[in-house]
Amino acid sequence: MAETLLSVEHLSTIFELPGRTPFSASHELKAVNDVSFDLAKGETLGIVGESGCGKSTLGRSILRLIEPTEGRIVWQGHNLRDLSPRDMRKARRDLSIIFQDPIASLDPRMTVADIIAEPLRVSNPELSRKERRERVQTVMEEVGLAPQMANRYPHEFSGGQAQRIGIARAIVTEPKLIVCDEPVSALDVSIQAQIVSLLKRLKKRLGLTLIFISHDLSVVRLVSDRILVLYLGRIVELGPRREVFANPVHPYTQALLSAAPIPDPKIARQRGRIVIKGDPPSPVNPPSGCVFHTRCPIAREACAETVPPLDPVAPDHRAACLFAEEAMRMAQSGSEPEAQPSR
Amino acid sequence: MRDAPLLALRDYAISFATPDGTVRAVNGLDLGVQPGEVLAVVGESGSGKSQTFNGVFGLLARNATTSGEAKLEGRDLLGLSPRMLDQIRGRDMAMVFQDPMTALNPAMKIRKQLAETLTVHRGLSRREANAEALAIMKRVGIPEAERRIEQYPHQLSGGMRQRVVIAMALLCRPKLIVADEPTTALDVTIQAQILDLFRDLIAESGTALVLITHDLGVVAGIADRVAVMYAGRIVEEAEASELFARPAMPYTAALMRSIPRPDQDVEAVEPIPGRPPDLIRPPTGCPFHPRCRFVEDRCRRERPPLAEVAPGRQAACWFPFIDETAGTEAAQEAAHG
Known about the structure:
The complex is a heterodimer.
Chain A: E1 4-17, E2 27-40, E3 44-48, H1 55-62, E4 70-75, E5 78-79, H2 85-92, E6 95-98, H3 112-123, H4 129-142, H5 159-171, E7 177-181, H6 189-206, E8 209-214, H7 217-223, E9 226-231, E10 234-240, H8 241-246, H9 251-259, H10 265-270, H11 301-305, E11 311-314, E12 317-319, H12 324-333
Parallel strand pairs in A: 3-8, 3-9, 6-7, 7-8
Antiparallel strand pairs in A: 1-2, 1-4, 4-5, 9-10, 10-12, 11-12
Helix pairs in contact in A: 3-4, 3-5, 4-5, 5-6
Chain B: E1 7-18, E2 21-33, E3 38-42, H1 49-56, E4 64-72, E5 75-76, H2 82-88, E6 93-96, H3 110-122, H4 126-139, H5 145-148, H6 158-170, E7 176-180, H7 188-205, E8 208-213, H8 216-222, E9 225-230, E10 233-239, H9 240-245, H10 250-258, H11 297-301, E11 307-310, E12 313-315, H12 329-335
């Protein structure tokens, strides 16, 4: 087992939503709900889930770009949440992020060189102007941007090039961990492959550890070593990529994988699909017990009462389902569920 | 065997006058949509796939110029007055967009929006229209349809709104529905539901569906036939199974090699180098030649026409992959000597 780089322990991020009128009570939205996992040095952890599942909030909470409400983020022996603003700034050198919308995430009034250099001003104020400029040149080369682009402005760039700028900015401080939040979702298919290949190459060359957040299971399968599946703020499954894709245990993971479109008409039209009905429930008022029970094909009464723990189902592979064994049998046989749905 | 096409585009072109020059968004397009078929139009942004059909529906921006023909059942839509076009839209052909809110009036209850279409286009009484509106809400799988139909669009989830828009498109039993990225904004589990719905409705109503998308996975699941667009032109057209098994045009083949798959472990994809062409100053010859790994002199000089390369298959390429093993590395190397 590789060295643990980061431990997330019982992390929750709760948003207070105002009531509908000034007199009514406010609601709580638990965007991230009691999430724990370890991140090994050098691995890529893919976080998947549908909109509103809390995957972006989780990524940002880990970096304290959104302040978590409960739990610990253990980084190099310290809980990031206990660090003073000064120490946190220092830690930021090692922790970086790449955003989804490459153009919107770049300041339109700054030149490319200034955008890329900005994190250095904050985290490495000791660097001279010349040193900064050299560093910017190095990373621009690293991500495949021509040096003469340094003095241009973001609007002059296509989406793919803008994302290269975003990546250059993310690696300029020589970070150890980068959170990639849907980094290719806004790009054209042919450009996605360029950016994914670039990220994979950089990860290897610079020894990075990545958290790769995406709704696109194909992209996640391509880049990740391990997969974390989120549903309504909770981890429902966590395991090695091969395991999760080949033998998904949680009924939600099974449904998610079977809904992913496969670019091959033969397979796409023959495969059995697990279609889950309805929309995800509101995170403001999540279901009791297992959060997935309202849409689950094998839910029973117990599922509405007990929050299932994230238990081991195979080496390094955990799932939060009271009826994990039955779910596994169902996936293997591809048959209809044995149990009657509770409703 | 081909019947008379339902929609026929002939030498169809769209250009936009901009301060930087004329953008040739669609060029010399020939395309037929057969009654009852599902035709996927695939391309990346700027390929002209959406503009082609915005033009058919008379929805282009003011700086656009169209030329050529766009005939629905033999009647040219391009010269029609806005009033005539209004009669055809909604009744004979309907459009579904990526964002359902573009088609829904946020200030009107769902029931009223559906019923209005029926009273205007099909001349139903208010009572008949209300009953039919409710029936179609149930048909598109909206739970608690009686309650939902009395709500406003913002009270529905994205997936439900898209169901309502599909219901609305179906109201007048059109012969053609054009859906522009109808599931792109939806989550995968909801996307699967909506595609299933489309598949069922098409099968039972005999409506033709043109599905505009960038997602080859969606295409593989639903399309009978596929037209691939690049730089405002169709560069390949084939039955879906043929196209995926043996892409004939290097762009199609490259696109397929560049996408990861949810059902296979692959360690790397093969990106297409460069980026889509500038439509104000398009490349000479084949528009794909600057990015094509099989480029030869002729590709730089002359633009290949869309031509039949095998029965029922068309490609715009001087050196298409057409033999049995086409699409494989060896065949591609061989074809290009």
